[in-house]
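note to self — DONT lose this again. spent like an hour looking for the file last time. sequence + predicted structure for the chain T wanted, 72 res
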Amino acid sequence: MPKKVDEYFKKVKKSNPEYDDSKAWATAWSIYCRDNPDSKHCHKKKYFKKSSIEELAIKFASILDKNDFKLD
């Protein structure tokens, strides 16, 4: 883990005491990747797999269908 992420985590926790550790780490990584987009640790294409997006679309369509919602 890059040392800078740990520094961001500490700053985020200090500035946002209501954040739990998970949210603070996520925020720290987001800041790091925003500032270092070419880092080997930051690859947006790995955040969501195509299959998970397709699966979400199928579930959404199923919910619409069950509720008789029609797209015209």
